[in-house]
Amino acid sequence: MSWRRFFHRAAWDRERAREIDGYLENETADNIARGMSPAEAAAAARRKFGNPTLVREEIYRMNTIGWLETTWQDLRYAARVLRLSPGFTTVAILSLALGIGANTGIFQLLDALLLRSLPVARPWELAEVKIAGGNHGMGLNQEYGELTRPVWELIRDKQTAFSGTLAWSANQRYIGRGAEMRHFNELQVSGDFFRVLGVRPYRGRLLGTADEGACPFSVAVASYPYWQSELGGRDISSGIKVYADNGLVQIVGVTPPDFFGMVVGDRFDLAVPFCQPPDGLRRDVFDVSVMGRLKPGGSIARASAAMAALSPGIFEATVPPHRDPRSEMMYKHFRLSVYPASTGVSDARETYDKSLWLLLSITGLVLLIACANLANLMLARASARGREIAVRLALGASRGRLLRQLFAESTLLAAIGGALGIALSHPLCHALFWAILPEGQTVDLRVTTDWRVLIYAGAATVLTCIVFGALPALRASNSSPAAAMKADGRGVTQGRARFSLQRAMMAAQISISLLLLVAALLFVRSFRNLLTFNPGMRESGIVNAFLGYWQSNLPQDRWMPFARELLAEVQSTPGVLSAATTTRVLLTGGSWEHGVRVGATEGHSKFTWVSPDFFTTMAIPVIRGRGFRDTDTADSQRVAVVNEMFMRQLTGGADPIGQTLRTIQEPGYPSTVYQIVGVIPDTQYNGLRGETPPMAFAPFAQFPAQGPWVDVMIHSNLPPETLIATLKRKLARDHPDVIADMSDFQKSLRDGMLAERMMATLAAFFGVLAALLAMVGLYGVISYMVERRRNEIGIRLALGAERGQVVAMVMREAVKLLLIGLPVGTALALLAGRSAGSLLFGLKPYDPVTLAGAALLLSLIACAASLLPARRASQLDPMAALRDE
Amino acid sequence: MLILQVVAPGPAHGHSIAYAIERRSEDVLLVEHGSLYPALHRLEDRGWIASFWGTSENNRKARYYRLTPAGRKQLHAETSRWQRVVEAVNRVLRPENS
Prior knowledge:
Chain A is an alpha+beta fold. Chain A has 4 domains: 3-64; 123-342, no CATH class; 350-532 and 754-883, no CATH class; 542-716, no CATH class. In chain A, 53% of the residues lie in helices and 16% in strands. In chain A, helix 23 runs parallel beside helix 26. Chain A starts with a helix and ends with a helix. Mean pLDDT of chain A is 83; it is low at 488-494. By secondary structure, chain B is of the alpha+beta class. Chain B has a single domain (2-93), classed as Winged helix-like DNA-binding domain superfamily/Winged helix DNA-binding domain (Arc Repressor Mutant, subunit A, Orthogonal Bundle). Chain B has helices at residues 2-7, 14-24, 36-45, 69-93; strands at residues 12-13, 49-55, 61-67. Chain B has a 3-stranded antiparallel beta sheet. In chain B, strand 2 and strand 3 form a beta hairpin. Chain B starts with a helix and ends in a 5-residue tail after the last helix. Classes of the chains: A alpha+beta, B alpha+beta. At the A-B interface, helix 2 and helix 4 of A face helix 2, helix 3 and strand 3 of B.
């Protein structure tokens, strides 16, 4: 068997034909010479030679590759057959392409977010060092911050398990001055960061150990996108200087285009070196993530053991100051452990992980429905072609050969569908991003069609093909020719058995559709619940303004008065109804908690310091006692307003007004006694989800830890954008040094519902798709049944059956399918619901209303789909049907 | 083997090969001449013979076959093997007592 010959087989055949002709001519000439007549001579030559066609065929077979040849034949035949029914082919290919495309698209997202390795040298060697079990909320915790800088330095100096270690922390900082100020994503890195990762400079140089020094740092490395968009791709060597993070820094290099930092789904703009602040590193700020490169042949387990052995010394030497003995003991008993980090880190993972897997299974189910649909259609076609197949069998076609031919059709369909699906998946994936991401927010994921995605799509296609192609093919080739010839068109009613497979498949389809519809309804309703959920405070018409004045060089004792001045200016702006400062913006994440003691009861309570108008601004009623007044100053009696949960948990439900609460001291927050003066109802605290914790509010004037910034909540009847523009203009004029970061409160809340919105949108889309597919499938199957029972229906009508009875008879089929499919689907939905429970808001996965609604919807769809063929059956002309016999 | 032997002395075309075999075996090996061609094809495929178009003795276009070096080696190997087989068979067939 050789490919060269295979492709030249036709040329060879011509050669041989010529040669054989040559032989015959020779022999004929010889025969004539022997005295035969020309006709006799030619005949004798033929006799001598044998059958020239057989000889040629034998040589042809030698040249060709048998299975390939016949496969090619099958495919061409299949293509011809498919071209004959363009409607069927289009529906089949489209549904497959959608199914496979959706699957591949979701898989691409999943791949980019969860499975891809970091774009660094030998990512599999990277491992992260963390405290086993976390730090139990000790000190200040930053996103992706696992350890403190002092701990990192000890690890760096003492460890022997890694060939190199690195530490980094990601922060959002400001670049530029005053009104020019913009956010940028800063990546603070240890000196060895780039060397250990094995990232090479794209331009200039990257940071090294020599760049670590005293604060402020003076050099930075730009990411490729930032260099391109913000720095205009200018030549590095000409010395670009930017005012970043409060100091002038020089850009010394650019990282390669594929290096986005360590956080998947995020990207850094500028990387700057760690620096030593003049007053030393803080031991209570957990802001760095520490990673190491395993030594060749080293293992996670061995590195983990080594780090655990180092832990006592490291933690003993870095105890944070001003801790109570219990926290100190806990800190000293922390143990370091090592975890694989080849795929980097990502918070987005936790947010989307479950959703994406769920979506992948949903799209998988949609594909399954599409397959079932196709299988049904193919089955119907196969039985319609029963006579053709019977004839072929009778003429001696082998079953295997026939099977292959039928299979070729599904292969062709699947291949085209798959190819289209792959082509569709990329735009689909991007549309997904585009549809679900709020404006201005970027999730920087590298979504590319790589071999992994292609393999996935290919596997999906092959699987699809097997699922929908094998059954009908097997079914058809198993028919006995005699029976098929006899039965076709002749029998009065098709045997029950012939339909059983289609029925079963249709019922399965109905149950899966129900499952998907339930999922769709659940997620849509959950999203709606979230949108309409009342968190106990005003959401709309609120602007949140973060004002920073650390560039104004104010002395520390001016920070608090300046915050109050800024608030007064905001309050006097036209259109502002009320405004208040707060130390925590509610509902948007983040939390501040103190240990408290009320009488003999000990517990924890959230703490927020707010200015007097806060409750009015946020429309939180004070249900007992009073709110705050301007007379609550830094020098007056410390007072607090608590919520009902506080009352229930810490004062035993008794009226708390007049009682005192004492906070347990923390660094910067001395133990303080507050007198409780008011009670507010329970509101949500740091998000829409979750139980309300005990909460306490205290006057802003009495806040012990004011920094050079303040958060202001502004209630206004102006559109938020207008108000933001007005305020920004005013601030830029009066206080050019003040950084203003403002947002529409309601919009930020909505943006926080990204995962829910994605689930709702996509689940709804796929639910509708599933229902549509089920509808098409049911319509097809019922139509087919009606077609096959034409004779029977004709006879019934001729014998005097009412048209209504015929409709009822056909509809009974659909109802039977529903009666099987719906309970099974409900059971499936209940089973599957458990995994979705945590993604739902305000309803349970076994929500009866949703289940009933989905079942009702599907029943309606099913009835609509079968009514059409049923009506057609009842309008049958009995004479025509019987004459067709 | 037979074909190889026939084309060993010099190039020959299909028609003459067929007759050559018939003649040499003194009509013991009589086959349909057509079955010769697949055999030729197979031999050519294995690289033991090579073919070219030429003009036959009576001025007709014909495809000529000649032995390649690999074919010559093959012929040698096959012939000696055949001889051994024949001798072995003969030894077995020879009466025991002689």
